[in-house]
Specification:
183 residues; alpha+beta; four-stranded antiparallel β-sheet
Protein backbone atom coordinates (compact mmCIF):
# COMPACT_ATOMS: atom_id res chain seq x y z
CA UNK A 1 0.00 0.00 0.00
CA UNK A 2 1.37 3.42 -0.92
CA UNK A 3 2.18 6.00 1.69
CA UNK A 4 -0.45 8.35 0.23
CA UNK A 5 -3.18 5.73 0.70
CA UNK A 6 -2.11 5.28 4.34
CA UNK A 7 -2.40 9.01 4.90
CA UNK A 8 -5.91 9.02 3.40
CA UNK A 9 -6.91 6.07 5.58
CA UNK A 10 -5.62 7.91 8.67
CA UNK A 11 -7.84 10.88 7.76
CA UNK A 12 -10.82 8.55 7.35
CA UNK A 13 -10.20 6.91 10.74
CA UNK A 14 -9.88 10.35 12.37
CA UNK A 15 -6.26 9.89 13.47
CA UNK A 16 -5.12 13.08 11.71
CA UNK A 17 -6.82 16.19 10.36
CA UNK A 18 -6.60 17.63 6.84
CA UNK A 19 -3.84 20.11 7.74
CA UNK A 20 -1.65 17.30 9.04
CA UNK A 21 -2.40 15.26 5.88
CA UNK A 22 -1.30 18.16 3.66
CA UNK A 23 1.93 18.41 5.63
CA UNK A 24 2.49 14.66 5.21
CA UNK A 25 1.78 14.82 1.46
CA UNK A 26 4.29 17.65 1.04
CA UNK A 27 7.08 15.82 2.88
CA UNK A 28 9.51 13.97 0.57
CA UNK A 29 8.84 10.50 1.96
CA UNK A 30 5.23 11.06 3.05
CA UNK A 31 5.99 10.40 6.68
CA UNK A 32 7.15 13.80 8.01
CA UNK A 33 8.76 12.08 10.98
CA UNK A 34 5.56 10.23 11.87
CA UNK A 35 5.47 6.46 12.10
CA UNK A 36 2.28 4.72 11.04
CA UNK A 37 1.37 1.85 13.29
CA UNK A 38 -1.13 -0.54 11.80
CA UNK A 39 -4.53 -0.86 13.42
CA UNK A 40 -3.82 -4.10 15.21
CA UNK A 41 -7.44 -4.65 16.30
CA UNK A 42 -8.28 -5.45 12.70
CA UNK A 43 -4.97 -7.22 12.16
CA UNK A 44 -3.65 -9.69 14.73
CA UNK A 45 -6.58 -9.28 17.07
CA UNK A 46 -8.93 -10.49 14.35
CA UNK A 47 -6.65 -13.41 13.47
CA UNK A 48 -6.43 -14.50 17.12
CA UNK A 49 -10.19 -14.25 17.58
CA UNK A 50 -10.87 -16.27 14.42
CA UNK A 51 -8.32 -18.94 15.38
CA UNK A 52 -9.86 -19.36 18.84
CA UNK A 53 -13.33 -19.52 17.29
CA UNK A 54 -12.47 -22.25 14.76
CA UNK A 55 -10.50 -24.29 17.30
CA UNK A 56 -13.55 -24.11 19.58
CA UNK A 57 -15.82 -25.24 16.75
CA UNK A 58 -13.52 -28.16 15.93
CA UNK A 59 -13.37 -29.27 19.59
CA UNK A 60 -17.13 -28.92 19.98
CA UNK A 61 -17.88 -30.95 16.84
CA UNK A 62 -15.26 -33.57 17.70
CA UNK A 63 -16.59 -33.98 21.23
CA UNK A 64 -20.19 -34.16 20.06
CA UNK A 65 -19.22 -36.77 17.47
CA UNK A 66 -17.49 -38.95 20.08
CA UNK A 67 -20.41 -38.71 22.51
CA UNK A 68 -22.92 -39.48 19.75
CA UNK A 69 -20.81 -42.44 18.57
CA UNK A 70 -20.90 -43.91 22.07
CA UNK A 71 -24.69 -43.55 22.30
CA UNK A 72 -25.15 -45.08 18.84
CA UNK A 73 -22.95 -47.99 19.87
CA UNK A 74 -20.01 -47.50 17.51
CA UNK A 75 -17.55 -46.86 20.35
CA UNK A 76 -17.14 -48.17 23.89
CA UNK A 77 -18.18 -46.12 26.90
CA UNK A 78 -14.59 -45.15 27.68
CA UNK A 79 -14.69 -42.72 24.75
CA UNK A 80 -17.65 -40.92 26.29
CA UNK A 81 -15.42 -39.18 28.86
CA UNK A 82 -13.05 -38.00 26.14
CA UNK A 83 -16.02 -36.77 24.10
CA UNK A 84 -17.45 -34.75 26.97
CA UNK A 85 -14.03 -33.23 27.75
CA UNK A 86 -13.64 -32.14 24.13
CA UNK A 87 -17.20 -30.84 24.07
CA UNK A 88 -16.67 -28.70 27.19
CA UNK A 89 -13.35 -27.40 25.84
CA UNK A 90 -15.14 -26.47 22.60
CA UNK A 91 -17.81 -24.54 24.50
CA UNK A 92 -15.08 -22.74 26.47
CA UNK A 93 -13.28 -21.95 23.21
CA UNK A 94 -16.42 -20.46 21.67
CA UNK A 95 -17.06 -18.41 24.80
CA UNK A 96 -13.46 -17.15 24.66
CA UNK A 97 -13.84 -16.21 20.99
CA UNK A 98 -17.01 -14.29 21.80
CA UNK A 99 -15.21 -12.48 24.62
CA UNK A 100 -12.24 -11.65 22.34
CA UNK A 101 -14.66 -10.20 19.81
CA UNK A 102 -16.22 -7.89 22.38
CA UNK A 103 -13.18 -7.15 24.55
CA UNK A 104 -11.20 -3.94 24.49
CA UNK A 105 -7.71 -4.39 23.04
CA UNK A 106 -4.61 -2.67 24.33
CA UNK A 107 -2.19 -1.88 21.51
CA UNK A 108 1.28 -0.51 22.07
CA UNK A 109 3.53 0.46 19.17
CA UNK A 110 7.05 1.78 19.75
CA UNK A 111 9.58 2.82 17.13
CA UNK A 112 13.01 4.02 18.13
CA UNK A 113 15.19 6.39 16.17
CA UNK A 114 17.30 3.52 14.86
CA UNK A 115 14.23 1.92 13.20
CA UNK A 116 13.48 -0.86 15.69
CA UNK A 117 9.74 -1.58 15.90
CA UNK A 118 7.98 -3.17 18.83
CA UNK A 119 4.24 -3.83 18.67
CA UNK A 120 2.14 -5.58 21.32
CA UNK A 121 -1.59 -6.37 21.23
CA UNK A 122 -3.41 -7.79 24.20
CA UNK A 123 -7.09 -8.20 25.00
CA UNK A 124 -7.76 -6.00 28.00
CA UNK A 125 -10.39 -7.29 30.44
CA UNK A 126 -11.50 -3.92 31.82
CA UNK A 127 -14.42 -5.49 33.71
CA UNK A 128 -12.15 -7.98 35.48
CA UNK A 129 -9.61 -5.23 36.22
CA UNK A 130 -12.33 -3.06 37.74
CA UNK A 131 -13.59 -5.95 39.88
CA UNK A 132 -10.04 -6.72 41.04
CA UNK A 133 -9.45 -3.09 42.03
CA UNK A 134 -12.76 -2.95 43.92
CA UNK A 135 -11.90 -6.15 45.82
CA UNK A 136 -8.37 -4.96 46.66
CA UNK A 137 -9.32 -1.36 47.53
CA UNK A 138 -10.14 -2.06 51.21
CA UNK A 139 -6.70 -3.58 51.69
CA UNK A 140 -4.70 -1.12 49.54
CA UNK A 141 -5.76 2.45 50.35
CA UNK A 142 -3.61 3.89 47.55
CA UNK A 143 -6.05 2.46 45.01
CA UNK A 144 -8.81 4.71 46.35
CA UNK A 145 -6.44 7.65 46.69
CA UNK A 146 -5.45 7.61 43.00
CA UNK A 147 -8.98 6.88 41.77
CA UNK A 148 -7.94 3.86 39.73
CA UNK A 149 -11.41 2.34 39.79
CA UNK A 150 -12.94 5.60 38.54
CA UNK A 151 -10.39 5.74 35.70
CA UNK A 152 -11.23 2.20 34.61
CA UNK A 153 -14.95 3.01 34.74
CA UNK A 154 -14.40 6.15 32.64
CA UNK A 155 -12.37 4.16 30.09
CA UNK A 156 -15.14 1.55 29.84
CA UNK A 157 -17.76 4.26 29.28
CA UNK A 158 -15.68 5.91 26.54
CA UNK A 159 -15.23 2.57 24.80
CA UNK A 160 -18.96 1.80 25.05
CA UNK A 161 -19.66 5.07 23.24
CA UNK A 162 -17.30 4.01 20.47
CA UNK A 163 -14.51 6.44 21.32
CA UNK A 164 -11.10 4.75 21.37
CA UNK A 165 -8.53 5.95 23.87
CA UNK A 166 -5.36 7.06 22.11
CA UNK A 167 -2.06 8.37 23.46
CA UNK A 168 0.66 9.33 21.01
CA UNK A 169 4.11 10.67 21.81
CA UNK A 170 6.28 11.75 18.87
CA UNK A 171 9.80 12.98 19.47
CA UNK A 172 10.45 14.38 15.99
CA UNK A 173 13.95 15.54 16.89
CA UNK A 174 15.03 12.24 18.43
CA UNK A 175 13.02 10.11 16.00
CA UNK A 176 11.23 8.11 18.69
CA UNK A 177 7.50 7.44 18.47
CA UNK A 178 5.12 5.72 20.89
CA UNK A 179 1.45 5.00 20.37
CA UNK A 180 -0.78 3.43 23.04
CA UNK A 181 -4.41 2.79 22.19
CA UNK A 182 -7.34 0.98 23.75
CA UNK A 183 -9.86 0.08 21.08
Amino acid sequence: MSEHMRILERIEMGEIDVAEAVRLFESPDGSAGQVTCDDTRNGWGHVVQQAVFWIGVALLVGGATLVASVYIGWLTHGWQVAGWVLFVLGVLGLASAWWLLRAAWLSVCVQSHDGDNVAVDLPLPLGAAELGVRLCAPFVPELRHYGLCEMITAAREELRQGDPLLIEVDDAEGGDYVRVSIV
